[in-house]
Write a structure and sequence with these properties.
- The chain has helices spanning about 20-30, 35-40, 50-65, 120-125; strands at about 5-15, 75-90, 100-115.
- With about 130 residues, it is of the alpha+beta class.
- It has one domain (about 10-115): Alpha-Beta Complex (Ribosomal Protein L22, Chain A).
- A 3-stranded antiparallel beta sheet has the order 1-3-2.
- The two termini are about 35 Å apart.
């Protein structure tokens, strides 16, 4: 199996939000161009959109500096989130009781790829 060499990865570990909330935003990003995704995240109402935007910008910077990719041709190939640590806290309740509160953290991964725009290859060569 041939390894895909034109991908760039950025990982943001221990993001202070649940994976379920992050995945709502990531669903809208998959397959979009990187600059469009950054624009969409700038105007998203969720607090966690800022952290996702930082991760996408980091992936774009990795592609530009480490692999010399053209940033205009980058798109989000994969965007996924996984569970990380969970802080367990307690909240006092009535009659001397306590109830547990879980504060989840997430690991966010963004994978970019370069889309090559060769119109001659797509539509056949006509001279």
């Amino acid at each position: 199996m041939k390894k895909d060499t034109n991908i760039v990865k950025a990982v943001n570990k221990n993001v202070r939000s649940s994976p379920r909330k992050i995945n709502l935003l990531l669903k809208n990003l998959r397959g979009k161009k990187a600059d469009v995704a950054i624009k969409d995240l700038s105007f998203a109402r969720q607090r966690i959109a800022l952290e996702i935007k930082k991760t996408v910008q980091s992936a774009v910077a990795n592609a530009e500096n480490n692999n010399q990719y053209d940033i205009d041709n980058l798109y989000i190939k994969e965007a996924y989130v996984g569970k990380s640590i969970v802080l367990k806290r307690f909240r006092p309740r009535a009659k001397g009781r306590a109830s547990g509160i879980k504060k989840p953290y997430s690991n966010l991964t963004i994978i970019l790829s370069e889309k090559l725009n060769n119109k001659k290859e797509l539509h056949g060569t006509k001279s």
